[in-house]
Amino acid sequence: MFAALALLAAGVLPVAPTPIPPHDAFDARQCYEYTAEITRYGERNPGSPGHAKTEALIHRVVLADGGKIDSDDFTADTPRGKVPVHNLIGKFNQSGDPHQPIFILAGHYDTLFKKGFVGANDGGSSTAILLSFADALKGHKTKMQIWLVWTDLEEAVNSFTDNDGLYGSKHLAHKLVEQGIAPRVRGFFLLDMIGDKDLDVDRESTSAGWLQDFIAAAAKKLGYSQYFFHYSTAITDDQDSFVNVGIPSVDVVDATFGKMPGDGMGAYHHTNQDTMDKVSEHSLMVVGRTVLLAVETIDSQS
Ligand SMILES: [Zn+2]
Fold first, then answer.
1. Gap from CA of 36 to ligand 1 centroid (Å)
2. Which of 302, 279, 301, 295 shows the shortest CA–CA distance to 105?
3. 65 C-alpha to center of ligand 1: Å?
4. Ligand 1 centre distance from Cα of residue 273 (Å)
5. Model confidence over 112-147: pLDDT tens digits?
């Protein structure tokens, strides 16, 4: 009160602080810490203790950030038998409008069924960047409803075929169609393997080019163009499930993890060398800030 009076006396009115836009609120250090914490949980395939700990962390962060949490639970028939699947959805900025547009940011939180595989980059970084998006969205108003979707059982139980892999995202995409929600979804960005120290994001060729252009423009504005879209290849990933139901989607994926070719996606991909020493805070920052700025731009035009 005293300070305000003094300002008034000086002829200056106190001004409400401008809210920090999400891309500036993105905390890369915290994102790296989340990745490290999740990686310490160990193997995180469905049914494992690490998977349950990751679910608990997601719940905790979304609720602390003022989001609402929903889940999409079902049992998948897999070559390994029945597997319980839990997609988790953190919803931000829901208005009462039943036609409010929705934008989805997604990433898988399961890891490969492979002894000793801890997936710092593949599974860890995608889970963590969505947690940091929740932190950045805390208290921030957007016109669109923002959904943070942690997909489950993205990984194939044996190897990717039409019937093995992408279990969680297929189920959720069909559910959105059945519930009549799909037409409200303006876009879908999938984040995968974006913590790689040697960051080079694929202009993934099954993705919607016009939506990738928002990412390219945001990267340019932030001075990060060197990390994006210098090669183009098709990746089987959760965006396929949403593309197949007509939702404009982009896979934001670094498809070269370690020396190429390895298994086609680099020497560390799907190996027990996918550990924290391959992950960088800087890469998480570049992708986190770029994706959030792209969403802010889309929101301002919605
Ligand atoms: Zn994988």
1. 17
2. 295
3. 28
4. 13
5. 999 999 999 999 999 999 999 999 999 999 999 999
